[in-house]
């Protein structure tokens, strides 16, 4: 049977998971009566809710006597660590581009890696049936992107297709029959070469581990492409690190391969195919699994270093333990260690007291997804403000810089550029019209300057702006960056908030809570209209009297409070504040202060 291995590259929300759904359906991977969820490849609840791909996943389908292995790659930069290694498993890439938006930052990031590996792309212009689609402009932008990334003449001579993933068709011409995806299957078989590894079946077994996961029944499992030889259950193999050091020797307990959306046991994994092995206990991503006679590891892409860190601690507020059932530091540590086993992009270190843990990762979204998963499992946590990780080079302090691409209505360009290049120390790289009354702004901004900017950006652009960011480079430290300008309103009492008290506090700023909500001393209940923090009493009821007077008994009408999402709260807090996360609520509070210090701050307010 012929074999092809391809990866699908696309920016967030350009429709790759929907297209893979249709490829599977039309190839007969599902039974006629099989119930299949929409976006079947997004198996995680959060992936479905947010419409993003977080975990790289493989699938396999058969068409016209050939097997095509497809890898669905994450589109967001925070999960980009997965992408680079996955490209080593494939022989061709399908670049999916929204015909209205054109190539976006994550497209550029992953495509540069694919072109550097010598992979020949197939360009699919998706959503061409939308009213704002401009496929010719998008195609020109893709060509310009390839040229700017140093593509070879062979790579620049790419085939292009026009498609609608949701409607389930792809054609070589814009005005084609629009029936099905058969033209795309045929193009993949014709344009993507068969794996070179097929010629190396007789050599000793070698495989580079590309993705890591855990199964509750068979333990740690590693997926990759077999570079040479064959493997079957019962074989004894060894694992080598990137430097060639021996990690462990193990017996293969199971060999699995992707068939449709499920992984099924197979008798023999052969060179060129993408398989999953079980049986190891220490080997991880970027390690080489090989025959005992082999001494040299396969070249591997290093695991990208983390760029931000967040402290996870126990919830020690007065309301701790009321919502969740996993509150001890030991249980939190076990869960974080379990996460580190299957997510190579994060690093966990214990803090000196042992009550909190520093978790380093690739970005705020990655941290937000981990915290969201934990709160759904019943955990209660205290989360610190994200901190950027610096590094030293030749005695100089270096910090990460991100390339920010913004599409915004023309009237808001001034305020966006002012905020990015002023207090946030960004450099404007490019600014050009994007059509339909919008401007595209590209800037290089320190990662520190982007922490907490998303909410402010949405306010400045009245919710119409689109911001995308991707790691760009390391640069010398740019000096202090101004934090949040507004102070906060802090509760000075424990109890239940009273509508009358909140009504009187509304003139002081925006409130984060409503009436009849539990509050405690040190909890932040709103944003002050001035720059200083202010201690207030949200429990103060109305003084009652037996004398009736007109106008005194009017109903209190409160303004709707600002309810922050988890990510907004983490981005909002300052250095001396924490986010309290439980399965039901997200609160913000000050870190515990000495009573004298609290009084001093209150007097200065």
What attributes characterize this protein structure?
605 residues; alpha+beta; Rossmann fold; Elongation Factor Tu (Ef-tu), domain 3; Alpha-Beta Plaits; 5 domains; eleven-stranded mixed beta sheet; nine-stranded antiparallel beta sheet; 15 helices; 36 strands; 22% helix; globular; disordered C terminus
CATH class value of the largest domain: Alpha Beta
Q: Which structural category do the helix and sheet elements fall into?
A: alpha+beta
Which architecture name of the largest domain does CATH use? 3-Layer(aba) Sandwich
Number of helices: 15
Overall shape: it is globular
* Separation, N- and C-terminal Cα atoms: 76 Å
Number of strands: 36
What's the rounded overall pLDDT mean?
81
Radius of gyration: 27 Å
Helix-residue proportion: 10-25%
* CATH topology (level 3) name of the largest domain: Rossmann fold
Low-confidence stretches: 31-44, 46-55, 593-605
Explain this structure to me?
There is one protein chain. This protein is of the alpha+beta class. It has 5 domains: 2-194, Rossmann fold (3-Layer(aba) Sandwich); 198-290, Translation factors (Elongation Factor Tu (Ef-tu), domain 3, Beta Barrel); 308-388, Alpha-Beta Plaits (2-Layer Sandwich), CATH 3.30.70.870; 391-476, 2-Layer Sandwich (Alpha-Beta Plaits), CATH 3.30.70.240; 488-604, OB fold (Dihydrolipoamide Acetyltransferase, E2P), CATH 2.40.50.250. The protein has 15 helices and 36 strands. Strands 19, 20, 21, 22, 23, 29, 31, 33, 34, 35 and 36 form an 11-stranded mixed sheet that branches. Strands 8, 9, 10, 12, 13, 14, 15, 17 and 18 form a 9-stranded antiparallel sheet that branches. The chain is globular. It starts with a strand and ends with a helix. Residues 31-44, 46-55 and 593-605 have low confidence and may be disordered.
